[in-house]
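Page 37, continued from 36.
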């Protein structure tokens, strides 16, 4: 049986001071799974600008021992100048109906791919998104603003209204996936594997930031949720939901606006402990490859 094909479109800022690590965690998680070929990574903006995300992702794939993974700069809204969008179009035309897209930052590159080829979404096998909210998102009494859809709401509207076979890891659903600092230390810090120790030490700054900012002893692995529900759907319960986004609602990332109703899958984790153990297992598997 041939491997499935995937492209990760992300705003990876793993290791950038003050910026989230979740895209990097999702990349490593994806690579830990067998049966999948990562065709490339397309860089967009969100956690930081594309000028930061692109070189950081080039450095990241080197740091994890995968320098052969092609990385393309995107984030520009002009499809003609967006090399990431051109790569996306090239791959879905080379493998029509076979490519899954995991998108965990702004949806600018997907929108630009559609501008280049209006049949782009028809040629994609499925799309897994991290972003959007169905109600206000609060952590320990503090409101957390949505980022991925709102930072380019026009692109989000394009993908949500024209895209096919879409799953969304909303900010609300991802609240079920808090990875506690103690468990992270117990599973990774005590490892004698050099990569795992690097991985642990390089991630600590974000745990510290979350503790200072929101007062909890852990992090939400937002983008890993979107990767897992695409690659290992057996860990999730499908939740077909009617959303109604419009341009105005998407300015705040809200999926519930005054637009036409769209049936979208918003999967929920079936068993939190099983899901968490699975994610750590994929990190361990990657470290031994």
């Amino acid at each position: 049986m041939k491997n499935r094909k995937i492209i990760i479109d992300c705003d990876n800022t793993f290791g950038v001071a003050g910026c989230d690590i979740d895209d990097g965690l999702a990349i490593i998680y994806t690579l830990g799974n067998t049966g999948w070929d990562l065709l490339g990574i397309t860089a967009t903006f969100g956690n930081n600008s594309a000028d930061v995300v692109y070189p950081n992702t080039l450095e990241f794939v080197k740091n994890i021992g995968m320098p052969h993974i092609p990385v393309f700069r995107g984030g520009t809204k002009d499809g003609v100048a967006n090399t990431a969008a051109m790569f996306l179009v090239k791959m879905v035309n080379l493998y029509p109906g076979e490519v899954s897209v995991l998108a965990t930052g702004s949806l600018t590159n997907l929108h630009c791919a559609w501008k280049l080829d209006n049949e782009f979404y028809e040629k994609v096998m499925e799309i897994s998104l991290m972003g959007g909210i169905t109600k206000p998102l609060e952590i320990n009494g503090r409101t957390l603003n949505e980022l991925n859809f709102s930072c380019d709401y026009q692109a989000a509207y394009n993908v949500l209204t024209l895209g096919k076979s879409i799953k969304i890891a909303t900010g609300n659903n991802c609240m079920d996936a808090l990875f506690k600092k103690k468990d992270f230390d117990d599973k990774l810090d005590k490892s004698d594997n050099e990569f795992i120790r690097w991985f642990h030490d390089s991630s600590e700054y974000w745990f510290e930031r979350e503790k200072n900012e929101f007062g909890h002893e852990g992090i939400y692995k937002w983008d890993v949720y979107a990767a897992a529900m695409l690659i290992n759907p057996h860990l999730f319960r499908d939740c077909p939901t009617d959303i109604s986004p419009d341009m105005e609602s998407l300015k705040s990332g809200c999926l519930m606006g005054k637009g036409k109703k769209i049936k979208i899958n918003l999967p929920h984790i079936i068993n939190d402990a099983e899901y968490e153990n699975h994610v750590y297992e994929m990190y361990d598997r990657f470290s031994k490859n």
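The radius of gyration is 18 Å. Flag for discussion at group meeting. The mean pLDDT is 96.
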